[in-house]
Every structure is written in C-alpha cells, then in structure tokens.
Amino acid sequence: MQVLIAQQCGFCFGVERAIDLAEQLLAAGKRVYCLGSLIHNEQAVARLESAGLKVVEEVSEVPTADNGEVPTVLIRSHGCHPKVLEAVKERGLQLADATCVLVKRLQKLVSQCSEEGYQVVVIGDPDHPEVRAAQGYGKGVMVVANEADLAQLPQTGKLAVMSQTTHGAADFGRLVGLIAAKGYTEIKVVNTICRETSRRQEAAVELANEVDVMFVLGGRQSANTRELAELCRRQGMETYHLQDWGEFKPQYVEGTKIAGVTAGASTPRWIIEQFVDGLRAI
Ligand code: SF4
User: Fold this and answer.
1) Is 130 noted as a catalytic residue in this protein?
2) How far from 204 is each of 42, 68, 131, 164, 231, CA to CA, in Å?
3) Which of 231, 251, 255, 244 has the alpha carbon at shortest distance from 278?
C-alpha cells in the first residue's frame, strides 16, 4: 500500500522542549513531579515515568524535601494558573517551567488586556488545561467554545478576543465575525493561534485531498490531534484517529490504495514511523 506522510506532523518545538527538560532533570538525578500529564501522549509519558518522572495533579501532592534534596515541580507546555506558581514558591520547591513561549504570550496578553480594562474572551475549550491556566491571568476571563456561548458575553463594553493556541484558525475567524456582528464599539482581536498548529492543519488538509483514507495519530486528550482529525473529516475523507499501530485494524484500509498519515504536536516520531512501517508492509 502506498503511504504518504504529511509535510508537517509530530512533535512541535514546545513539546520537544518540555520533554528535553524532563529528560535533563531526570538524567541529573532530580526528583521530578509533573503537574498533570507532561504531554497528551500516553506512550511518551510512560517512557518518562519509567525513567522516574512522577505525575501529580496538585502541588500539595509533592512531598517535601527529603535528605536535603528539594523536589522539582515541572510545569508542562500548557502552562499553569498563577496560584500554582505561588504554591510552589510557598512550599520552597524547585520550579522547572516548560510553559511554551506561545502559551506564555497568551497569558501575558490576557493579563495586559485585563489590566487595560478589556473584557477578555478566549476562544477555545473551557476544559483544556491551557485555557483554564490562561483564565487565571486576568479578571473574569470568559471562554467561548461555540456559537451558543456568545450569549454569555456582555452586551456593551470593550472586548479583547484571543484564542487557545491550538484552536482552528477558520473557527476562530468565524466566531470573531459573529462577535463583531454584535455591535461592540471596541473589539481588540489578537491572533494567539500557534503557527506550528496551523501548519500541521494545512498539511493535513492538503494530504487528505490526495489519499483514500487518513490516519491521524495522537493521544485521545490531545486537542490539536482531535482538531486534525476533524479537519480531515470535514474534507469528506474517511479518517481514523488512532493512538498507535496497536489500534490499527485491517478493515480500515480495505479497498484503498493510498493512505495518508499525520500526527498531533505531541506524537513522538517513533509512533509515526512504527505506524507507517506497519501500513507499508500491507
Ligand atoms: S502546539 Fe504550539 S503552542 Fe502548543 S506547545 Fe506546541 S509550539 Fe507551543
């Protein structure tokens, strides 16, 4: 079977940096506690856990200094609520911050616009850790996930609208257009969409138009992977979102000649290679 791989797919620089940092700390013999899963990929996290990484949900779960060794709290690329940073400081723990620079930019913009008196609106998933963390940087930050959520916005005042870094550009534009139609006197729109994400989306759409079936590899919790799969489906393409080769079933490629493969920003290269090798062997 012919297998084509998207021009841009797999690890982004933010995820790569987070993994490198975790590996360096573990290699240096540090006791590292990551707040939440380091990336949305079970296999990559399992590898780090076998090297000693511990995953906790709250700073309170991190044990205090033992034999003079202070544990390190690792902040993942999605960033964290400012209260988390305060808690790390208060408890005298070491901080290793792998917040992606683009997520930091979003947090900074939320803070600046909020201080300037804007009602900050973030377009994205209210349950995503990046969005929940960003909300902590401003006052009363509102999250809009879809058209129905627009009803919660204030009727008047000045709005600053930005986006979860991994949100689709087309949907961001659509929702901004609907907000503009509401007639606010001032709307400040800041494009906080990550180019790494949009490049992967453009490459996936391009590929989906050349193949008979698309495979999108990545964790089920990975927002950017889900978005890639959704985009391919919107092209009318039969699309399977799988975590790895272990989830593949031969009937997925029955009657097809060319398969396309792409992967989310938190999918390691070895998962992509293993999958492509498996498909090519059919
Ligand atoms: S997808 Fe973009 S914003 Fe998210 S970690 Fe990667 S580079 Fe950073």
Assistant:
1) yes
2) 23, 50, 24, 20, 8
3) 244
Q: Does the beta carbon of 223 sit less than 6 angstroms from any atom of ligand 1?
A: no
Q: Is 13 in the pocket of ligand 1 (CB under 6 A)?
A: yes
CATH class of 102-193: alpha beta
Residue nearest to atom 7 of ligand 1 (CA): 14
Domains 2-10+196-280 and 102-193 belong to one CATH topology:
yes
Nearest to 130 by CA among 164, 88, 172: 164
* Ligand 1 site, residue 240, Cβ cutoff 6 A: no
- Domain map of the chain by residue range? 2-10+196-280, 13-100, 102-193
**Is the CA virtual torsion 19, 134, 175, 160 positive or negative?**
negative
Q: Does the Cβ of 193 fall within 6 Å of ligand 1?
A: no
Nearest-atom index, ligand 1, CA of 195: 2
CATH 3.40.50.11270 is right for the domain spanning 13-100: yes
Q: How far is the CA of 8 from the centre of ligand 1 (A)?
A: 14
CATH code given to domain 2-10+196-280: 3.40.1010.20
Nearest CA to ligand 1 atom 8: 14
Q: Go through 181-203 and write b for each residue having 16 or more CB atoms within 10 A of its CB, e for each that does not.
A: eeebeebebbebbbebbbebbbb
Q: Find the 14 Cα to ligand 1 centroid distance in Å.
A: 5
Report the DSSP beta bridge partners of residue 32.
Answer: 72
| pLDDT tens, position by position, 2-38 | 999 999 999 999 999 999 999 999 999 999 999 999 9
Atom of ligand 1 nearest to the CA of 265: 1
- Reported as a single tens digit per residue, the pLDDT across 124-166 is 999 999 999 999 999 999 999 999 999 999 999 999 999 999 8
